[in-house]
Amino acid sequence: MSLAVRNRIEPAEPNALPTARVHRFTVEQYHRMIESGVLREHDRVILLDGLIVTKMTHNPPHDVAVDLTQGEVSARLPRDWRVRVQSAVTLAESEPEPDVAVVRGPARRYRKAHPGPRDIGILIEVADSSLAEDRTVTGPLYAKAKIPVYWIVNLVERKVEVYSQPRAGRSPAYADRRDYAANEQVPLVLENRLLGHIPVDDLLP
To answer: Which residue from 24, 55, 68, 111 has the least number of CB within 10 angstroms?
Structure first.
């Protein structure tokens, strides 16, 4: 039986650095740095809540789980939705690259701009060493953007955490969390419609 956990994802403690030493960037400034060559692909950075941060290195189990997850999710989507893997999405103050994003199609819709909150149905992160960050930093970030459903494929505890009912405001969080163990099936819900169930074992390496 799945475990319903009522406590919310809460934001991490504020950074201890003095604010005078931290410069925040807008999405537009971030784009200009990429276009001008200040930031390049090999820099492996993303914009999170106005800060440019280094992307984490992936290990083989992580990449296997991403591959399994995108395959299982893709197989159950309606034709007007599609999966993007480790590609950027644009939020108000961030441009993360979630491991798996379920977005409206067709693919050419995003020739000039990355998917935004209105284009996104589900965001999924595969977590091993990033588990705490995906719960306390990434989760509130996605809740603030009103992303309706957020999954963490938790490799550490071998389960899938499903978050829904995003609430923005001063302390953004998801109001509902449900955990699905390795011998259970996680429901795939898109726009409040149940598309099917995925065995958690089929998402784990």
So the answer is: 111
